[in-house]
Amino acid sequence: MSDLERYSRQILFQPIGEEGQRKLLNSRVAIVGVGALGTVIANQLTRSGVGYIKLIDRDLVELSNLQRQILFEEKDARLHLPKVIAAKNKLNAINSGVTIEPVIADVNLENAEDLLKDVNVIVDGTDNFMTRFLINDAAVKHGIPWVHGAAVSSRGMFAAIIPGKTPCYRCLFPHVPTGTGETCDTIGVLSPLTSIIGSFQAMEAIKIIVEAETSPNLEQLDIWSNEFLQMDITKGRNPDCPACGKREFEFLDRSSRQQIVYTTLCGRDTVQIYFRDKREIDLKKLGASLKKSGKVLANDFLLRFSPDDQISMVIFKDGRVLVHGTNDSVKAKLLYARFIGN
After folding, report:
1. Number of folded domains in the chain?
2. The domain containing residue 187 runs over which residues?
3. Measured between alpha carbons, how far is residue 147 from residues 5, 125, 160, 311 in Å?
């Protein structure tokens, strides 16, 4: 069987053809976040014949992931496998001709450029704004196209971002949201939604690789109410954008006011998280959201949230958070993203 026979039905699609398929086989893609979106993206790109896929994720497989994270099985959760390892095992069985590189890491300003600069396309499978701004800075700095995606509850969105051609992510979203953000762990998410958004992201990545036109829109949809919105972003480039306009990559700059600081408090089994750029948290709104996920105690000054018997999170009005029960800053960051968002 020839190398191309596997992809015969894809090659029959004229906009791809044999030339496009060979481009896919010679391409390199990084997927940041191998959860609900990332597993769908990885599955689609592996089956489509992307030659090299770098999977980057910091987390382990849990039972609650199986409702929507399509590459994982119950045994992966029982074994507490890192998501990238479990995903690699499944993807190797799907297409042994694709090179899968699993990277167990938290993408941050220390490693983002090294992890992302050697690929043709970056695809966003993350669940928080800070990592997306970081991806955007790395992508714009190195001229790498990337595909943004997000899904929570029944709502999702995606957009293809091509440095020098389209608005960058920071043109569309100039500032990191203040306060708190909705997350899958606080308001849930529907499995069909993540499959739809992840598939659209994979399709945009394939278009970039075969040099076809990507969607000119920030596409938004709500699959519960069947609402769809296409926002034309072709004229959205901001000449004063810090990233693509001024080429000031604040999220790659340790001294920037945009950074979040994670400090392990010696002898206290606690990690402190705070924003250099001050913000104010609506404790009442946050408490109402977190009650679905654990125990909440609050007063006018702070809120204490306990998702389980080992971990408690103390959130102050100025956005500072103490994560008690761990001295691992990566775990603390994961807990923050899961329950508080941005």
Report:
1. 2
2. 5-252
3. 28, 9, 4, 34
